Amino acid sequence: MKRKVMAAYWCGCLWGVLCLLLTACGEYSYHYPSVKLEFLTAYSGGDGTLERVLTDGGEEYAVLVDDSHSHIRPDSLVRIVSNYELVHKEGGEGVHLYAVSAAVAPIPLPADKFPEGVKTDPVDVLSVWMGRNYLNLMLTVKAQHGKHKFHYVEDRVDVDAEARRSSVELTLYHDDGGDTQAYSQRAYCSIPLLQYADEGVDTVEVSLHVHTYSGEVKTYTFEYRPLIAE
């Protein structure tokens, strides 16, 4: 029951970022002073503007300035990648967001939930690491003018109640739409994992399969310990 509730909650919050408009490598080439480039969980207020962010390290900050003027669904959350700086304003500490891009962060789905079948067009993985209740990926794709779609396929979920462990096997879904492989562009993906934190599960072993331009299928394995408070 808990898993179904969590999945419904996250789907409502995150499904809107299924399709990522690819970010050119040069987008973040300008260096702002004392600025970090990180994955963040951003929360909106009643008017849909970003009010606060949570870092993967667990620090929470008010959004004092947002140069991106981002708007999302009111009173919801979204996964983003942002250039930001810690600032002080009117006696309080918060963040100045210089640039914001949506990270692709839908809940993984079983293969039979993809009407057109599972697409595994290749990518190159620049880095992959465990964030706060997410598995983060920084990818490079070869593209020209097409719109690439990303998602995550849930291949297998096994729960060992006695050992208080579960094992999850995922595959990166990538549909390049037949785009010409002309230029290298950056894509940011963030896989939600909190829905696998069923009662009695302390540790989740996550394996992610990624099809690459070299023709290999690379597998990345991480151990995830759920952080329930979000």
TrEMBL record:
The organism's place on the tree of life at top rank: Bacteria
InterPro entries xref list: NigD-like_C_dom_sf, NigD-like_N_sf, NigD_C
Every NigD-like C-terminal domain range: 116-224
UniProt-recorded name of the protein: NigD-like C-terminal domain-containing protein
